[in-house]
Amino acid sequence: MNAAERAVHEYTHAFQKSRGGPQPNWLMEGGAVFNECLFQERLDSNVKFSECFLTGGGGGGIIRKTREKYLEDPSVKWFTIYSTDRCCGDFCPPSITSPPPSDDERTYYYDIGAFAVAFLLHRSGQGPVEFWTKTSGYWNNPNMVWPGIDTENGWAIDCPEGEGWRGVMSNMLGGETAEDFYAAFEDFMVPTMGTVVSEADMLAILQSDEDALAASLVEADFDASDFDSNDRGPGECSAFEDMFSKISKVF
What we know:
By secondary structure, this protein is an all-alpha fold. The protein has one domain. It contains 13 helices and no strands. It starts with a helix and ends with a helix.
């Protein structure tokens, strides 16, 4: 990862943290890696969005590393087991009985996470601008944090179905639950028993390189529905629309 890619990744985290949490780790790290690829053609005109997904981002190839993990054992639901909450050393959420090998962490949270974000956009029909900036998307939806969550000691998985991040995902997916989404992801990765999806089929769910480049060129486009009155006063902008403007001006 070069300095510009690091800037995109960490600026994404700065925005995400401003929205509250805890949030699923695949949406946090996967979202930041997704943006590395979204802005990749701005960084290097020779590298398209799809090529970044195939050979770049995360641990050295989002699609390839995700496939490698599922090829390791197609019977394991890797995304479902490991991606929502992340162990801190040996301290793990109730959903994980033991921490994954440390050398696999980037695969679970960064590579599989980034592909899961792409899969969420594919399944919801949203593009990255809506996903990041609109109240109908994810990161600017005022309901993305469940009021009952323990913000200091809680885990994203503590959020009940229909509330917080799960409810926002359900809204994006037309009523499909977060659990349904996880199951659909696993079915996509292993469409038949013992058979892992092809690279070509994984690439096919991505938005086009042209649409990705267009999204990376978006500057602030504010309207009243995108203001979050809990965090900003009248006339102040949505944080990630402002981020799109700032990153767009860097290149």
